[in-house]
Amino acid sequence: MDTKTLFKERRSVNFFDKNKPIDETLLKEVVDMAVLAPSAFNLQPWRIIAIRTDAGKNRLVGLANKQEKILDAPVTLIIIGNKDGFADSNPVWDEMLASVGGNTEMVAGAKQAATFLYGSSEDRKLKFAESNAGLLAMSLMIAAKDKGIDSHPMSGIDFDGIHKEFGLKESETVVMLIGLGYFDSSKQLFPRRPRRLFEDITTII
Ligand SMILES: Cc1cc2nc3c(=O)[nH]c(=O)nc-3n(C[C@H](O)[C@H](O)[C@H](O)COP(=O)(O)O)c2cc1C
After folding, report:
1. Average pLDDT of each block of 10 consecutive residues along the chain (205 residues)?
2. Burial category of 77 from C-beta neighbours within 10 Å (exposed 0-12, middle 13-18, buried 19 and up)
3. Choice from 154, 159, 176 to test ligand 1 binding pocket (greatest atom count within 8 A of CB)
């Protein structure tokens, strides 16, 4: 699908066809394409919980304002940001060390910079986790659409409730949910609402 069509045709689909599954191979293809999203220092401070079973959906739906699409969508992703993604424990640092030919000084400098930039306050840590995982979220919807899969982002949810129910770490934050599936063509989608354009949102300095 060309990029313009992809942007035009991606919609937040409220109604998913319950009878059209997404198998794990296809889900993996979507995720493995989406992780090409950029992230600070390539730290990729994110992970995903993919809810595919009825039991999982039932645990989630009550924590998402009972949004029916969670029951209908074959998969709903919980997008999780890692507020400590700059820490030593992130395996990306080892990969970075290997890619710079074992230059420990360079990696130590990058770690120090990342810790200062993203770890020096709670506000910065949250910004770090949410901005990076937010880019992953958009990437996932684009990668899905490229494969003909519709999506629906959701943040009308109980963030703390989901955090607790799915046993997230203290350092993790729920960023949003993304329903994935195929539009139920027996239903009607609202026409797309207009966007505010360049002159409305852009200041040139
Ligand atoms: C971060 C985010 C959270 C959203 N949360 C919800 C939600 O909880 N429930 C819902 O019905 N729509 C939700 N939406 C969908 C928006 O209403 C939708 O993207 C917007 O109206 C534009 O429509 P379009 O995506 O079809 O272009 C959310 C969208 C985003 C980006």
Report:
1. 94 97 98 98 98 98 98 98 97 97 97 97 98 98 98 98 98 98 96 97 98
2. buried
3. 154
Ligand 1, atom nearest to 14 Cα: 11
CATH of 3-201, one of 3.30.300.130, 2.60.40.10, 3.40.109.10, 1.10.10.10: 3.40.109.10
Tell me which H or E stretch contains 150: strand 150-154
Cα(98) to centroid of ligand 1, in Å?
40
Minimal CA–CA distance to 44: which of 140, 135, 175?
Answer: 135
Specify the long-range contacts of residues 186-192, CB closer than 8 Å, at least 24 apart.
187/14, 187/15, 189/11, 189/13, 189/14, 189/15, 192/11
For ligand 1, atom 23, name the residue with the nearest CA.
Answer: 12
pTM for this entry: 0.98
